[in-house]
Design brief:
By secondary structure, this protein is of the alpha/beta class. Helix content is 34%, strand content 24%. Strands 6-7-8-3-9-10-12-11 form an 8-stranded mixed beta sheet, with helices on both faces. A 4-stranded antiparallel beta sheet has the order 2-1-4-5, with helices on one face. Bound molecules: adenosine-5'-triphosphate. InterPro entries: AAA+_ATPase, ABC_transporter-like_ATP-bd, ABC_transporter-like_CS, Oligopep_ABC_C, P-loop_NTPase. It comes from Thermococcus chitonophagus.
Length: 324
Amino acid sequence: MNNGKELVKVEHLTKIFTSGLIGGFEIRAVDDVSFTINEGEIVSLVGESGSGKTTIGKLILRLIQPTSGRILFKGEDILQFDKKKLKTYYYKQVQAVFQDPFASFNPLHKVDRAFDLVFRSFLRDVSEDEKKELVEKALESVGLNPREVLGKYPHQFSGGQLQRILIARALLVRPSLLIADEAVSMLDASTRIDILNLLGEFRDKYGTSVLFVTHDLALGYYISDKTIIMYRGTIVEWGDTEKVFHNPLHPYTQMLLESVPDLNVKWEFKGIEPEREEGKVYEIRGCRYAPRCEKAMDKCFKLRPPMVEAEKNHWVACWLYYKR
Ligand SMILES: Nc1ncnc2c1ncn2[C@@H]1O[C@H](COP(=O)(O)OP(=O)(O)OP(=O)(O)O)[C@@H](O)[C@H]1O
């Protein structure tokens, strides 16, 4: 149900973390990143560990502040939201599900409380009967039996079951945007596919957009309309999933896809440089991938390549495609 309308517009977003007090160093976790998420669109954010995926999710959720750049939600800068707008943003517009479901539950309270909080904070006018029906439907939609869930404590569930409860809660308010950060990595293969299909259903029925953060190329391919490939805080390539996967342009994306013989097979990272080279790579002014790139030219080490639209809805940041 992608109607071509922009829901989220990320513009030149940069987040620099400073580590240590004296003699500390800076980490450019996200470095001049721009992309859009349309209404009713599932966008995968794919990249290896430490490439900045979670940081982007947190910035969109306003859990952390950007160093520079901005994020527009339905055309409005989220940093300028007043208290009222922020409340609506958190409950009605944006919901998030993270990798570790245990961290999202208070072990002293029954899991029902997770739903109560949503009703108390946002769906206040809903009658008790309606609440019950909504919760039951939400639980059933993620393959859980409400009678086996309600009234129980978090420790009585597996991680996968808790994750499904959190996804049910997130979808209960039918948010405009769901940020799913490695949200299905703890689930077994068949539940994982059920949840992915459920996200697709929500997109089709209610126009929910999803930012699907993953290090698993196959999951990204399965679920998303668009794919963003990240490398060390930068976007190297993004666009329609079919185009990115079937006509990869950036040497990094090509390397990734070559290392996945079959898209149904889980992607294992290959060739990550040793830790001690980390600082060196972060200082690079040009393309972050240049030190690993077989096609790198002199200027790749000196200048950051601009993002160019190489074909319709397919962008790449690589000097090989820059024509001017
Ligand atoms: N609060 C923080 N303080 C300092 N550095 C941070 C902080 N949060 C993230 N980083 C650093 O920023 C970089 C990007 O981290 P981020 O968690 O966004 O990556 P990721 O792609 O989500 O990785 P993963 O898949 O492992 O979660 C990493 O080098 C990380 O160590």
